Amino acid sequence: MDPIIGTIILFAGNFEPQGWAFCNGEILEISQNQALFTILGTTYGGDGMKTFALPNLVAPQSNGETVPAHYIIAVQGIYPSRG
């Protein structure tokens, strides 16, 4: 079953499954991710003309380092409908 685009889940792996991306604030091209852009817009960053950003759910550590919380977002799948 395909996930709904924009779904965020906690993932125990250290790799991105096909159709998913880490929620690490990555900047993406709108032209290559139009469906996800229509859902997220520039809520998490980007210029809104060519780029937008994924949410950044990386956990800061007390020593200043960061460790991924391993949240992933569906970048491919079913576009959600209203209604």
Molecular structure report:
The chain is mainly beta and 83 residues long. The protein has a domain at 25-68. The protein contains one helix and seven strands. The chain has one helix spanning 34-40, and strands spanning 8-10, 20-22, 27-29, 51-53, 58-60, 66-68, 71-74. A three-stranded antiparallel β-sheet has the order 1-7-2, with no helix packed on it. The chain has a two-stranded antiparallel ribbon with strand order 3-4. Strand 5 and strand 6 form a beta hairpin. It is globular, with a radius of gyration of 13 Å. The two termini are 20 Å apart. The mean pLDDT is 91.
Quick synopsis:
With about 80 residues, the chain is mainly beta. It has one helix spanning about 35-40, and strands spanning about 10, 20, 25-30, 50-55, 60, 65-70, 70-75.
Write the layout of secondary structure elements.
Layout: E1 8-10, E2 20-22, E3 27-29, H1 34-40, E4 51-53, E5 58-60, E6 66-68, E7 71-74
Domain Phage tail collar: 6-57
Protein name: Tail fiber protein
